[in-house]
Amino acid sequence: MKIVIELILFCILFTLMVKIAVGNDAVNGLYFYPKPVQEKAFAIGLTDRETMKRKKKRFMIPFFIMMTVSLIMIIKIWNGVSDFKDAYLQSLLFLEVMNLYDGIIIDRLWVGHDPFWKLKGCEEIPYVQTWDQIMKKRSILAVIWFLGAAIVSLMILGLKVIL
Fold first, then answer.
1. What percent of the chain has pLDDT over 70?
2. Which residues have C-beta within 8 Å of that of residue 3, sequence separation ≥ 6?
3. According to DSSP H, which parts of the chain are helical?
4. Phi and psi based region of residue 57 (left: phi greater than 0; alpha: psi -120 to 50; beta: remaining)
5. What is the DSSP letter of 95?
6. Is the pLDDT of residue 26 over 80?
7. Burial of 125 by CB count in 10 Å (0-12 exposed, 13-18 middle, 19+ buried)?
8. What pTM value is reported for the model?
9. Domain boundaries of the chain, sorted by first residue
């Protein structure tokens, strides 16, 4: 039960970081949208490429740091894991759950059903990923997270040496 609560908190952190990044204007998260939507947004003057790139960088760097640090804290400090196998399995579980959460809850449910994400002037362009697109992207990321989990596990073991 504890791990389920940790997974929920991890996903809530993910959601909060996305919400903070976009604030009250979905244009702030234009980098999340498919290329055709981005191009249309540029063409109608909602924003420009440089602004979008700057906002993406300002989001992605803190996002990856925060999610990685949180994952390490959960596994190393809260759960007391200190061996590679357990660190790897827990890291993989969290990363794969986050992967599915992002595809199903964030992309399909939140973005797909909340009018907040509809960009004025871009309504005619599909911006919600199809199930096929989600499955393809999530399958690729599922494989990538096998490596990501190993990296996080090595970081946890590195903390064992320091602590």
1. 97
2. 79, 90, 93
3. 2-22, 35-43, 49-72, 84-101, 112-113, 131-162
4. alpha
5. H
6. yes
7. middle
8. 0.91
9. 2-162
CA atoms of 133 and 104, how far apart (whole Å): 11
In terms of Cα–Cα distance, which of 25, 32, 26, 30 is closest to 51? 30
Query: Tokens representing 101?
Result: 């959460």
70-89: pLDDT as tens digits:
999 999 999 999 899 999 99
Quote the CA–CA distance of 13 and 67 in Å, as a whole number.
Answer: 8
CA distance 8 to 5: 5
Residue type, 35: K
Residue 160: the pLDDT is 56
| Residue pair 100/107 in contact by the 8 Å Cβ criterion | no
* Distances 47 to 14, 75, 114, 115 between C-alpha atoms, Å: 25, 40, 21, 19
The pLDDT assigned to 2 comes to 95
